[in-house]
Automatic annotation (TrEMBL):
Keywords: Cytoplasm, Ribosome biogenesis. It comes from Aeromicrobium tamlense. This is Ribosome maturation factor RimP. NCBIfam families: PRK00092.2-2. The keyword Zinc does not apply. GO terms for biological process: ribosomal small subunit assembly; translation.
Length: 154
């Protein structure tokens, strides 16, 4: 029997989520023994609603049940949207968060908050106090969306 890995689980689930029009954003396996939890994050342009999560949960659960990728030990499956607390790591994450404020850390250690502008496969425009600068993704170490209760220009 093989040990379940996020990579192996992702390989199984990618076609399932794609068939539903969703991106498989993250697979995380937590805990051990009978307390294992499989967290699956999905997303798409325009976001996902509760009905989409329910459909994805049914399809993912069926695929896992038809496979031996999780082994024989019990586990809890949790399917959710990507959520705003996850770092922006793919070009699609930046595109989907255009107009939002992000906390950014650059490769040189600089940290700042900026509003996300245009993005493409190679980089993103970030606006700080009206000045927009283009950043290649490989210069960004970490970026996380900030919750805005009272929208202000950054």
């Amino acid at each position: 029997m093989t040990t379940p890995t996020p990579e192996g689980i992702s390989s199984l689930l990618e076609p399932v989520t794609t068939s539903l029009g969703l991106d498989l954003d993250e697979v995380e396996l937590l805990g051990k023994g009978e307390r294992r939890r499989l967290l699956v994050a999905v997303d798409r342009d325009g976001g996902v609603d509760i009905d989409t999560i329910a459909a994805a949960t049914r399809a993912i659960s069926a695929a896992l049940d038809d496979s031996d990728v999780m082994g024989e030990s019990p586990y809890t499956l949790e399917v959710a949207s990507r959520g705003v607390d996850r770092p922006l790591v793919e070009a699609r994450h930046w595109r989907r968060n255009a107009g939002r404020v992000v906390a950014v850390e650059l490769i040189d250690g600089e940290r700042f908050e900026a509003r996300v502008g245009e993005s493409d496969a190679t980089g993103v425009d970030l606006a700080v106090k009206g000045d927009t600068t283009r950043f290649p993704y490989d210069e960004i170490v970490k970026a996380v969306v900030q919750i805005e209760l009272n929208r202000k220009d950054v």
